[in-house]
Amino acid sequence: MLVTGLLIGIALGFVMQRGRFCVTGAFRDLWVTGNTRWLTAFLIVIAVQSVGVFTLDALGVISLSSSPFPWLSTIGGAFIFGFAIVLAGGCATGTYYRAGEGLVGSWLALIFYALFSAVSKTGALAPAVTAIRGVTVEASTVHGVLGVSPWLLVAALAVAVAALARHHLRRRPAAPMATLPARKRGIAHLLFEKQWGAFSTALVIGVLAILAWPLSWATGREAGLGITGPSSNIVNYLVAGDAEVIDWGVYLVIGILLGAFIAAKASGEFRVRIPDALTTVRSIGGGALMGIGASLAGGCTIGNAMVNTATFQLQGWVAFGFMIVGVGAATRLFITGPSKARLAAAGQGSASTASEHESMRS
């Protein structure tokens, strides 16, 4: 059954690479241009998954539970993680799929993200992380705090997201971009040449996120999509050789890397790209901070901002908000603030850096 994690991961990596679905760009767009199109796409994933997950829970396929809310670590860790993904040039899944495209900067960010996730969860920083995460309040879910049925929140979220999507779909389309003549036909053209839409990509990811729950539970891993824990487990396995840490989630993240490579190779987008010195330093530092921040917050943009939000966990929604704040702080410091010109002079504006830190297509 573990192989289902690999299959879901391959599909997820493929879809994210072809759809350019990196959450960093969605959050950064809010601060740079005020554009909410990709944030709306991200919310579509949450809304679709929420409907599916609570349906699975109602049918008894899975059983949702909650625990006290570690508010202090969630706030601090989410801010650190949000700040770090701007440095690294991508969130956790964005780093995985860009590594599959051949971006060496993403390879470095991914290595240090996994390493410092392990250091924070089971290594030298684990006691400090555990202590900070021990500062909790009993409240755990939004519907629990409000004293309402979670279905009321599911319905409200679905209506709000549908309204946002309708707003974007009704806007006057921009002038079409010039494209090369199609070289493939039929399904091959749709999969590997045609530009994928933000909302259609989000719908597919939402379905995959729903499927992850029962498939993961069938193996004894009672969770949905997750990146930080499995990345940490890979490091622990390589260091200690403990095969018990190789679970459904590990197969998932390996699959994401493979799926992204398949998509990039088949679409002609795979190319090994060496970063300049500044991007290298930022990728390493960003990856390390990602691992620490995600461990403190209890998850990354997937585990917290996409999965825990879908089940209306307070940890998920608070982390979602503070990740956006962290992205805003880093954007101000490195992209739109006074240091922009200085960084550009140091090489930030080079073609290598642009490829490493490209925004998602809007």
UniProtKB/TrEMBL annotation:
Q: InterPro entries recorded for this chain?
A: Sulf_transp_TsuA/YedE
Q: Which UniProt keywords apply?
A: Cell inner membrane, Cell membrane, Membrane, Transmembrane, Transmembrane helix, Transport
Pfam families, sorted: Sulf_transp (PF04143)
Q: Name one GO cellular component term.
A: plasma membrane
Indicate where this protein resides in the cell.
Answer: Cell inner membrane
Q: How does it sit in the membrane?
A: Multi-pass membrane protein
This protein's source sits in the domain of life called Bacteria
Segments traversing the membrane: 38-62, 69-90, 96-116, 148-165, 196-215, 245-264, 284-305, 317-335
Family, as annotated: Belongs to the TsuA/YedE (TC 9.B.102) family.
What's this protein's name? YeeE/YedE family protein
